[in-house]
Amino acid sequence: MAMPMEAGHLIDKLAKVRRYTARSLTVVEGELEGRILAVVASGVGRDAARRGVEHLLAGHRPRVIVSAGFAGALDPALNRNDLVLARSTTDGTGAVVEVGPGLVGPVAGVRTVDRLLMVDRVISSVREKAELREMHRADLIDMETFAAALAARERHVPFLSLRVVSDDARTELPREVGRLLNTSGSYRVGAALRALWGRPSAIKDFWALHAHALESADRLADGLQVVLRSLP
Question: Which of 1, 45, 69, 120 is the most exposed place for a label (fewest CB within 10 A)?
């Protein structure tokens, strides 16, 4: 996962929790329904996602890598808090990585889409979401899955992506949102203060987004538990 917020509710479900910190990344290891999970919040973006996967592969030798977290919907049929498995992921340059072939079949309460597009910034505009869908024939966007999938494929490790829709294709996000996250996945206090100074009503937007994010993280943790049961 990219952000601690995305991982928190899953970590709360783990038993016999152990923590290991190396090279500034903390891996939380624990047991869930008889399986051992190693969870890392690697930070936001392409480079961080690759680093997180390589860190897990080097230190924990997982049988399966699961990239999980928030995603923006490009398909208008997807709604906020929908759980989604993607069959493939692309970086928008023509490179495509197939995701999870044969790992799991249909999972109750989880939708399957064809393509997840990796982007390099938060897409807040409804118009831009529509343009990306048209250009890349994609259903979802995030900032990590393609890089994580590529790193796993290079090491011949099975890979799966589960995303929860944090904002749908019809939602216009506040313009300040893209400036608030740093590469570690935490909020930049200075950017938040400048946004509030320039538009005091933004505080309502931020609190609403925070509440929605906590709700999505809880939904993601429940979905991961269901998907993990389906893995061989």
Answer: 120
CA 202, chain centre distance (Å): 24
Residue 222 inside a domain? The answer is: yes
Secondary structure tally for the chain: helices H, strands E: 6, 9
- What is the CATH classification number for the domain harbouring 106? 3.40.50.1580
Spell out the SS3 assignment of 67-122.
EEEEEEECCCCCCCCCEEEEEEEECCCCCEEECCCCCCCCCCCEEEEEEEEECCCC
98 within some domain: yes
Residues 30-82: tens digit of each pLDDT: 999 999 999 999 998 999 999 999 999 998 999 999 999 999 999 999 999 99
**Domain, as residue range, for 128:** 65-230
* Tokens 């690759």 belong to residue: 50
Residue 189 located in a structural domain: yes
